[in-house]
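Chapter review: from sequence to fold.
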Amino acid sequence: MRATVSQRFLNAAARFVVVANLCYGQSLVARPIGQAPDRVLLKFEPQVLEDEAQNLIVSLGAAETQIIPHIGVRVLKVAPSRLAQVLEALSHNPKVESAEPDVILEPDFTPDDPYFSSQ
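The token string follows.
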């Protein structure tokens, strides 16, 4: 059976990560150093209609500020004092696939590309 383009891409990407890890002797896993105090990353179950999604967001007192279309994630702005309550409510909602705080990651390494700073 022939591999699809996406399967070939994923295989190539996985090989790149392994080779980069071996060459640089570093882990390519970034460590969390904090979280945004007022942002939630939210992904609904595929069958949830847009009206339902918007109604749930409004009912939580949140505002959608961005959508990351390729992965179906919405960025919500919430009052910092309500972050834990909103995450708790979303974690028990059957329409929600995932909800998590917007975590800030520490850079793992700086590329050795001499033109990196000018990109």
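Two observations follow directly from the output. The chain has two domains: 1-28, 32-105. The helical segments are 5-24, 50-59, 83-91.
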